[in-house]
Amino acid sequence: MNVLVIGSGGREHTICWALSKSPKVDKIYCLPGNGGISEIAECVPIGVMDFDAIVDFVDSHKDIELTVVAPDDPLAGGLVDRLEAKGHRAFGPKANAAIIEASKAFSKYLMKKYGIPTANYEEFNDYDKAVEYLSNAKYPLVVKADGLALGKGVIICNNVKEGLQAIKDMMIDSKFKDAGKTVIVEEFMTGQEVSILSFCDGKTIVPMVNARDHKRAYDNDEGLNTGGMGTFSPSAIYTPEIEQEVLNNIILPTVEAMNKEGRTFKGVLYFGLMLTDEGAKVVEYNARFGDPETQVVLPRLKTDLLDIFNAVVDGTLDKINIEWTDEACVCVVMASAGYPEKYEKGKEITIGDIDKDILLFHAGTKKDGDRLLTNGGRVLGVTALGKDIHEARQKAYANVKKIKFDGAFCRSDIGIKK
Ligand code: AMP
Ligand code: GLY
């Protein structure tokens, strides 16, 4: 079977890599892809939001039997709907279900209505009302832009001044464009965070092995929030007891809630959880594989990923047994100096003699003849499997040292926390 993957990051490289291991996959196309993906897939320079060109591409490539839509924007924008309307098979939620990520106002409404544990909140469309509320609120609290904002639309505010600045940035100065017209003001929660990705065909939901992300740019969780500077799987904090509690109180009720709302979810549903003293609570939902969680979860998957994608699309997830290795996995992201703010692109990357069992997932890279150049903030995810986190961590960092580009930086503490 030939498959098309939409996207260009480390997550998409990992998905392409996992698909390339399937004996049933003949050829992979990727739009637009990146330098690493181009070694295992045919990359075509069509942007993920150029829906007309994507639909034309699938129409004119009769050999493509499945399109995997990986990033949030095209899912929220309805690319799966567009492909299905033309009779094509697509993996990912339709727009009316992808809203679980695309609108925090919707996800908070859903959780409140169906009693799914999450932080208490207020929603504001009116700036003056938000000012009044934030002037009298108890701090710290969290101000969130309603819409998609590259993970940057969440501001933790320690006092009135910061609270008022956050809503001014969002509602008056349109820092996140329309995404910040509506804001959510949330109770501040404390606890450890864990990411649970799951396959869902609308009826059956199968959680994957857990992962932990490192969102801040620098060691000890200092610096700005990023798309994710590294991950590991599994985490010991996600005990079997917590896993059961999350399944019963969060995962299954979410699938049921979406069905009751007439928004059946098919694809990967991602639960960003905080383990608080009052139990696990939802911080956010994503309607897709997480990045860089995917980089440490899919290497642990024993089952053929194509079979799982097909089962999700066909609604037969209950018929397959999804298996995982007991190994641990660590991914260290190498980023460009300045990320997540201003950074330069086009720096030459040299990759020394890296160990054969290292998985080098490319994020922001591109080929220039024989040269490999940086092409984004997050550049590479150096990923290693090991018998435990310690071994995987040692292997990943030993190989990070062999990769060089001007301005490269990474966190040195991925895989240290529990
Ligand atoms: P989100 O984009 O909603 O996942 O938020 C980004 C990050 O902000 C999360 O991973 C948390 O670390 C933090 N965060 C979001 N909401 C809260 C909250 N209510 N309390 C404490 N931290 C939060
Ligand atoms: N790593 C978090 C995300 O993909 O949103």
- Supply Rg: 21 Å
Give the distinct bound molecules: adenosine monophosphate, glycine
- The total beta strand count reads 25
β content, as a range? 25-35%
Quaternary arrangement of the chains shown? Answer: single chain
The number of helical elements comes to: 12
The helix/strand class is alpha+beta
**Can you give the helix content as a percent range?**
25-40%
Shape, per Cα inertia axes: globular
Give the biggest sheet: 6 strands, antiparallel
Distance between the termini: 40 Å
Overall average pLDDT: 97
How are the SSEs ordered, and which strands pair?
Layout: E1 2-7, H1 10-20, E2 27-32, E3 42-43, H2 51-60, E4 64-69, H3 72-77, H4 79-85, E5 90-91, H5 95-102, H6 104-114, E6 121-124, H7 127-136, E7 141-145, E8 154-157, H8 160-172, E9 183-187, E10 192-200, E11 205-207, E12 212-213, E13 216-218, E14 222-225, E15 230-233, H9 240-260, E16 267-276, E17 279-286, H10 293-297, H11 305-314, E18 328-336, E19 350-351, E20 359-362, E21 365-368, E22 371-374, E23 378-386, H12 389-400, E24 403-404, E25 408-409
Parallel strand pairs: 1-2, 1-4, 2-3, 4-5
Antiparallel strand pairs: 6-9, 7-8, 7-9, 10-11, 10-16, 12-15, 13-14, 15-18, 16-17, 18-23, 18-25, 19-24, 20-23, 21-22
Bound molecules: adenosine monophosphate (AMP) and glycine.
Adenosine monophosphate (AMP) is lined by residues 119, 142, 151, 154, 186-189, 193, 215, 272, 283-284.
